[in-house]
Design a protein that fits this description.
single chain; alpha/beta; eight-stranded parallel beta barrel; three-stranded antiparallel β-sheet; about 350 residues; TIM Barrel; 2 domains; globular
């Protein structure tokens, strides 16, 4: 277990470090590496990382709840897709399951599910998912008044100043992403996967469903296709990524390049003191689809960096070893501050 540093007198409140788990081994890795909170999802379309061979059934979810409780950590359940017509009972049952196993909070995006959770399980905390696309304090305050949310996860489209503005105008806890894969779209509103495969990430729970993914060896290299659409072609020495439309290389005129978004990962280690100063309640790691080894290493590094920032925010400096470790785990081995920093604005 990691020893959690206590902020020095006058230092900012220490935010929760919220880490992902797509399996019990990943959950144990997160806890052992120092996560304050771990978030999981069920093995169905009620969560937005509905990949085959991942996630939790009732028995493993119950075991996850017991493990986090024994270790003094919190467990969240993401039920962050939208119910499909005629199948609403499946999503409500997921909320009932979360309450039954004793999670600390459910992460919800759909207003109907927020209402159901508030009425049926009023004592269970409700967090507004990033999939809810709430980018203003007015939207967050509406959800607080209507559904009693206690925390909101902000989409990764706001500058640091905009995040601070939201925090200053709501009593709801604000959670921001600190590391992991980026999405070119405003979360909760992507239609690219629906266009290609017919399955909406917000309904089926997965971007680029595995059933639509195909790999082909050709004379020109390894082709990655999604529902027949050529997403990328890799030379023999290149690392092949999972095919998603937003991160494919496409022929545009006479050039071939990442037309929508280059593979890169958000990394906010360098701005931790600023996140502490503006009062974020939690810093979240993306990656329930990642391996236990990924979860352990990212959690370990962020735990150490966050503890250093909390203990001495004025004297904080980024250690090269942190960035080196996180760089190896980043998409395309590239990192960015994303929308948090817009020097051109």
């Amino acid at each position: 277990m990691s020893d959690h540093a206590t902020p020095a007198s006058g230092a900012s409140r220490r935010p929760e470090l919220v880490c992902p788990a797509g399996s019990l081994p990943a959950l144990r890795a997160a806890v052992e590496a120092g996560a304050d909170t771990v978030y999981i999802g069920l093995k169905d379309e009620t969560n937005a990382r509905n990949f085959g061979g991942m996630n939790f059934d009732l028995a493993s979810a119950r075991e996850a709840a017991q493990f986090t409780l024994r270790n003094g950590r919190k467990l969240l359940m993401a039920i962050n897709t939208h119910p499909q017509p005629g199948h609403e009972a499946r999503w409500r049952a997921a909320i009932d399951t979360a309450a039954d196993i004793g999670v600390d909070a459910v992460i919800l995006a759909d207003p109907g599910l927020l209402r159901y959770a508030a009425k049926t399980h009023p004592h269970m905390r409700r967090h507004l998912s990033v999939q809810g696309s709430a980018t203003s304090y007015e939207a967050i305050e509406f959800c607080r008044e209507a559904f009693g949310i206690s925390r909101a996860v902000l989409p990764r489209v706001l500058t640091l100043a905009q995040v601070e503005h939201v925090i200053q105008h709501t009593s709801v806890e604000i959670e921001v992403f600190g590391f992991g894969s980026l999405c070119v779209m405003v979360e909760g509103r992507c239609q690219l996967s629906s266009y290609a495969t017919g399955d909406s990430p917000n309904g089926a729970g997965v971007c680029s469903p595995a059933r639509a993914v195909r790999w082909h060896e050709t004379e020109q290299g390894t082709e990655a296709r999604l529902a027949g659409i050529l997403i990328d072609r890799y030379a023999p020495e290149e690392n092949a990524g999972y095919p998603t439309l937003c991160k494919g290389r496409f022929a545009v005129g006479e050039d071939t390049y990442y037309a929508l978004e280059e593979p890169t990962s958000l990394n906010v280690v360098g701005m931790l003191p600023e996140l502490l100063r503006i009062g974020v309640a939690a810093i979240k790691v993306e990656g329930r689809q990642r391996s236990p080894a990924y979860v352990r290493e990212v959690t370990r590094v962020l735990r150490e960096a966050l503890d250093h920032a909390c203990a001495q925010p004025q004297r904080f400096h980024v250690q090269p070893a942190w960035q080196q470790a996180l760089g190896k785990l980043s998409e395309g081995q590239q990192v960015t501050l994303g929308a948090y920093s817009r020097p051109w604005k």
